[in-house]
Amino acid sequence: MNVFEAIKNRRSVRSFSDRAIPAEVLEKMKLAIRYAPSACNFQPWHFIIVTDAKLRGSLAQAANDQLWMAQAPVTMVACGFADQAYKKMGGYDNSIDIDLAIALDHLSLAAVEEGLGTCWIGAFKEEEVKTILNIPNNVKVVGMMPVGYPATANLIRPIDESRRKADSEIFSTNSFGQ
Ligand SMILES: Cc1cc2nc3c(=O)[nH]c(=O)nc-3n(C[C@H](O)[C@H](O)[C@H](O)COP(=O)(O)O)c2cc1C
Hints:
Blueprint: H1 3-9, H2 23-34, E1 45-50, H3 53-62, E2 74-81, H4 96-113, E3 117-118, H5 126-133, E4 139-148, H6 167-170
Antiparallel strand pairs: 1-2, 2-4, 3-4
């Protein structure tokens, strides 16, 4: 599968089978994360691979009761260290959210090639997630991502063009809005 096919076929999957992820496939997902770029290559991150069913259930509750998340055999929890990130994005901003988002995006695209489904989880109560996984106070939970085989094959399918804004709305050439 080439990169563009993976981009085109990635969909948010919210229903998973209980099929285990083979160890070598999980290793490939870890590699996709590790190879992600980060500002100054600081790699201000740590990823918790949550496989324990009880913990996955608790994380789903902490994610505003998105209980379907717990069906997936792995929940990847992306943690960032603000003090290790680049702090001058645009002259003033911390790169932590961007760095971690790129790494999770690598995971979501590499997953497509393996027939795995993923879904970004941004709706969660950070303090609860920290308590569940013993994450220190100074660490930011940037996002979570269940990873697993979709419950049905048709959950990974090409993008529906009508659900994306038109080129004319989101691109301009040489000057903003032109
Ligand atoms: C930062 C971010 C946070 C998201 N949080 C959630 C979430 O908490 N729950 C959920 O079901 N989907 C979540 N999504 C998935 C979006 O709803 C989804 O990507 C969007 O509707 C486009 O659909 P697609 O991923 O199938 O292309 C999130 C996506 C992003 C990028």
